[in-house]
Amino acid sequence: MRSSQGSGADPGARGRVDQRLRRGARPAPTSPHSPAKTNHPLRAAIIGGGPGGLYTAALLKRLAPDREVTVYERNAPDDTFGFGVVLSDETLGGIEHADPTVYEALKAHFVRWDDIDIVHRHTRHTSGGHRFAALGRRRLLEILHDRCRDLGVELRFRTEAPPPDRLARTHDLVVAADGVHSATREAYRDVFRPRLTPHRCRYIWLAADFAFDAFRFEIAETEHGVMQLHGYPFAPDASTVIVEMREEVWRAAGFDELDETESTARCAKIFADALGGRPLRSNKSAWTTFRTVVNERWSHGNIVLLGDAAHTAHFSIGSGTKLAVEDALALAACLAERPTLQEALTAYEEERRPVVASTQRAAKASLEWFEDLDRYLAQPPRQFAFNLLTRSRRVTHENLRLRDAGFTESVEREFGCPPDTPPMFTPFRLRGLTLRNRVVVSPMDMYSATDGVPGDFHLVHLGARALGGAALVMTEMVCVSAEGRITPGCAGLYTGRQGEAWRRITDFVHDGAPGTAIGVQLGHSGRKGSTRLMWEGMDEPLPDGNWPLVAPSPLPYRPGGQVPRELSRAQLADVREQFRAAAERAAGAGFDLLELHCAHGYLLSGFLSPLTNHRTDAYGGSPENRLRFPLEVFDAVREVWPGERPMTVRISATDWAEGGTSAEEAVEIARAFAAHGADAIDVSTGQVVSGERPEFGRSYQTPYADRIRHEAGVPVIAVGAISSWDDVNSLVLAGRTDLCALARPHLYDPHWTLHAAAEQGYDGPGARWPAPYRAGSRPPRTGRTDAPRPRLTLHGPGQDG
């Protein structure tokens, strides 16, 4: 039983929680007047009587029957906002082990189903095997109320909690489960340091008096814009219905002028097909904007945040109730396990924070997908459905194939995959170059050249990866001048000797790995040059032998670093000529593709970002002016680069810093390069300013590639923590990218692509093993680890056993 995009829980962590709760371990109690010296607080106050607060109270009392536990809830017992709650396998497993009584009561009221229906442009696609369980929120509260009363928890309804500072003085533990608008969190804002991020959609919680037979997503394209319905059953005769749309669509449709009754009727009319013409009902329902809550700290003294007070995750990947219940399980377990309250609260946060952060990343991807839903409306129907199902990156191609092979195969057929061919092994054409699969070995600086000349190391490094099955192998950034190097170990293409050395490598790739293309990335370090080799101190200046730096503006990359000279008009012309000459040498060296490096804060990237380009002439100021020089360089290179060979451009789609390049500007940058003849945009992010704050995570840069692909209408190469072949299949099949560039996985395994083919049972033209390596195309056998099973058991007189 999973939530709509899988569970955010860590099964391993849940298992540890289960074990601790089953042990029920706790030390002897000490005085309630010294809460920091005991893990068995005798007096606990819970602020908020939602599912998280109630379940926390029940667990605390169950683990220590002599503990005094009081729940303060300002509303009446039967007051609830919203209708149904979806719970996952992980959450239910934790509840079952921690409190079988609650689990059995919940189980008796579950509605279960397997399917997800996606209705778009009057076509319904169904994907099965998802295993959901839901029940009414009111029923959940009743079960928890009964359990708390049975255990002796004091429930104070219609009662405002005393101020948290007063509770902290009179109780050993104060659990703030008071929701997204937590007064406790606000009272200690300077300690918890919350960040509340509003998003771009309005939504409303409603209900229908019939049960959907699947989790239903329905898209309505109205005269005012796109609206969507999220619906699921929570009882045999009732369903939750959430209607969501962008703020501007909401206003254009006039919802801002309608009351609750009018809004409810209007939603029922818009989604009459999904509802079978039946009405919707509300329950103090109001249009609201989702806010993501993140706190730098979750506890202060003996006060701890739980559930929505500590964190929120968008409803489109599951339930806030799920996270709150898992918080309760972890908090109770840590209190039972740790020798002091402070250690317990620290352990609780350490255990839950990474799980919550992962869930919030998935939730962000999901909510942004729905915010930008109109971007995908023109996709083929099955690809649209697959894209929706995999939007959070929690559900993947392989996961979906295991759940519903028939649905996944239908998406692959529509995409054009030949039989038994994973999406990553379909070909892709760029200008006159046909790539046999969708895998690129991303450019990786090796810092191993001598005077810019690539040697045996580069031959082996690039040759090994070419033999490993990727369709395209990219060089590191190859510098267009000695002064344009990052380090003394950087490779170049500014001399004939360097060109000859590169020819040796391209010849090997073409002869030794037929079908593999090799590309060169040309760049200039700009203000990030004259530094040590990476393993000697990344971005650290050379101890001696420094060369002067140039940049759009005289701004050092790091505080105290070398200040570059601002390039004059004459120097701009010189640099442009250096790129042109390097491109001519690259063509002569036999490269199949050329990429212009306009990312990561190097010279051309420095022109694009407003944080690094402070010029007041024609090359600075407006986005159009900041693009001027990079486009001039592109045109100069394209002019000498053979017409049948493709050119790509790598950009940083965001600087991860306030005032830097925005995602909207990145789309315009991509459009401009495409208009000048770029065949694809290699979409990276960051490394432009030293004070950046990236939002790292699995495939964290791919949303930028996705946006550029759909809004600029240009093929893209996605990069950034794409680590598995399942990721590649998912991203390509969903239409979020055309190619995937992987760096570290190819350092770990030069044969990453061939091994991906073997692991998927694929043996076709998209991944041909070199003839000398064919014998290794299957995993080698290992020794048996299983013991022989008994074949015969004899029982009788004189027989042991």
Chain-wise SSE layout:
Elements: H1 11-23, E1 43-47, H2 51-63, E2 68-73, E3 84-87, H3 89-98, H4 100-107, E4 111-113, E5 116-120, E6 123-127, E7 132-136, H5 137-151, E8 154-157, H6 164-170, E9 173-176, H7 183-187, H8 189-192, E10 194-208, E11 215-222, E12 225-235, E13 238-246, H9 247-252, H10 260-270, H11 272-275, E14 280-281, E15 288-295, E16 299-300, E17 303-305, H12 320-337, H13 341-371, H14 381-389, H15 397-403, H16 405-415, E18 428-430, E19 433-435, E20 439-441, H17 456-467, E21 472-479, H18 496-512, E22 517-523, H19 534-537, E23 550-551, E24 565-566, H20 569-588, E25 593-598, H21 603-608, H22 623-640, E26 647-652, H23 663-675, E27 680-684, H24 702-712, E28 716-718, H25 725-733, E29 739-742, H26 744-748, H27 752-759
Parallel strand pairs: 1-2, 1-9, 2-8, 5-11, 9-17, 20-21, 20-29, 21-22, 22-25, 23-24, 25-26, 26-27, 27-28, 28-29
Antiparallel strand pairs: 3-7, 4-7, 5-6, 10-13, 10-14, 10-15, 11-12, 12-13, 16-17, 18-19
Domain FAD-binding: 44-360
Domain NADH:flavin oxidoreductase/NADH oxidase N-terminal: 424-757
Pfam families: FAD_binding_3, Oxidored_FMN
TL;DR?
This protein is α/β, with parallel strands linked by helices. This is Bifunctional salicylyl-CoA 5-hydroxylase/oxidoreductase.
Instruction: State the separation between the terminal residues, measured CA to CA.
Output: 43 Å
Count of extended strands: 29
**Main pleated-sheet profile:** 8 strands, mixed
Structural class: alpha/beta
Gross geometry? globular
